[in-house]
Amino acid sequence: MQILYGIHPVEEALRAGRRRFDHVLVARERRDERLEAIVALCRTLKIRVRAEPRESLNDIARTPAHQGVVAIVRAQEFLSIEDILEPTGAARLLLALDGVEDPQNLGALLRSADGAGVDAVLMPERRSAPLSAVAAKAAAGAQEHLRIARVVNLVRALEDLKRNNLWVIGLDERGTTDYDQFDFTGDCVLVMGSEGDGLHELVRRTCDHLLRIPMAGGVSSLNVSAAASVVLFEAARQRRLAQRGQEKSDSPGRRKKQKGLGS
């Protein structure tokens, strides 16, 4: 079992319905609409709720930052690379994390991935922060809505993706192409490196393209979660524009006009 704490992580886990809850603890001292909404949702889902002193929640969560709610849940299940490779019928955008070891950064990355519409996230079993309560709090519950795969060997997983016609795109300050000059509308996986060293050499050599974020100041790079957010939302922007263009070209009025011009 695993601990979740905080309003957003617990609420999103309840709404996603992917995990089995053992019980939920709420602080006796806190009474407001947000907490009452969680209690009501637990009752609807027939999940046990207990009111405890705030100090008890501090001990269980090992932090006072629980916002008055702690849940005991089954640990999140991970997918395999085979699950990720299943066709979806649309161009896929994946995120691969190469050695992100800080749980706050991991949570921020997952939150950005969910917001940008990433189809799946790949994380190595070693040299990676666990999907802990700290990471879940930083993700504001976003991890509950993401498809996440744990892989033994990230390089091998990336090679599998390449064999299935996905472009492997690394973000690296040594890259030669600016991130906003790359076409993200096809099947691709964005690879982000560790906080200190960036991409590992084998991972970097596996990438089909290396992109960079041009920096105007004296600092050469962004924090990994900030950098991923910049690139993922550029990819999301490109995909929205491509989808709108496709919908416009497929509209009945457009097809009728084209037919008339060709008659």
Features:
seven-stranded parallel beta sheet; 263 residues; 60s Ribosomal Protein L30, Chain: A; four-stranded mixed beta sheet; single chain; alpha/beta; Alpha/beta knot; globular; 10 helices
As laid out across the biggest beta sheet, the strand order is 7-6-5-10-8-11-9
Radius of gyration: 21 Å
- One letter per element, helices H and strands E, the order comes to EHEHEHEHEHEHEHEEEHEHH
What's the domain count? 2
Q: Judging by the overall fold, what is the CATH architecture of the largest domain? A: 3-Layer(aba) Sandwich
- What is the CATH class name of the largest domain? Alpha Beta
Averaging pLDDT over every residue, what do you get?
A: 90
Contiguous uncertain segments of 5+ residues: none
CATH topology of the largest domain: the name is Alpha/beta knot
Main sheet overview? 7 strands, parallel
The 3D shape can be described as globular
Distance between the termini: 67 Å
In which range does the helix fraction lie?
40-55%
Q: What is the tally of helical segments?
A: 10
Strand content: 15-25%
Task: Give me the CATH superfamily of the largest domain.
Answer: SPOUT methyltransferase, trefoil knot domain
